[in-house]
Amino acid sequence: MFYINNTMVSIDFYGGVDEIGGNKILLTDTKSSIFLDFGMSFSRANQFFSEFLQPRKANGILDFIEFGLLPCIKGIYREDYLRHCGLPYEEEPSVEGVLISHAHMDHSAYIHHLREDIPIYVTQESYLILKALEETSRTPFTELIHLKKTFHFIPKKRNEGYKRLQGKPAQIKRDVKVIKPYKNFEIGNFKIKSVSVDHSLPGACGYIIESDDDTIIYTGDLRFHGRRPKTTKKFVKKAKRPIQQL
């Protein structure tokens, strides 16, 4: 859900419209670009895949692009997948960060495909959940905290030829930034505050985002009937203040 006072910030929806979850929302002003969540659309993925029929990791990112599961945007995807598919790799990322509202897969699963130098902003609880999912999951697309280089080969030390890069040399830690509720931080031209909300998963938050001309309120998922309704009510009060000042 969004509240926005002006139109200087453009909003592009690549998921989360007329569906539950799948949020991938790009905010862009004249100086900066950020994503709000980067999740899987279960409804769309289920049109093509099932428990026993999954995207081909050997095909890199192409299955996801071909079926419209991921947007075709330059400068956001990991180098190993792009080069394997023969797609161009930009030297610099085209967005300054991704704000994750919570660790449910319909809001965070496709972090796996992002390049490692795009900062991922999460609460402490969301970080721990994503880390546990990465360490315990048996599915092939759960590199949420670390990125393991695929399709990379290095020369053999003793014999001629090449071998696949594996183990610790292939693992790169993503630029994950743990944020604290109600603490201001900045991404490019955006001034941001995360505010805790009640949801079925710990660590859920909404965001109050301000640019030079606009104020955007992003709720993610929230509820008023759970164990901590006061946190959601506090978010509503925090969100109401900048709107009243416009």
From TrEMBL:
Gene3D superfamilies on file: Ribonuclease Z/Hydroxyacylglutathione hydrolase-like
Metallo-beta-lactamase domain: residues covered: 88-223
CDD domains: metallo-hydrolase-like_MBL-fold
UniProt xrefs under Pfam families: Lactamase_B_2
Name of this chain's protein: Metallo-beta-lactamase domain-containing protein
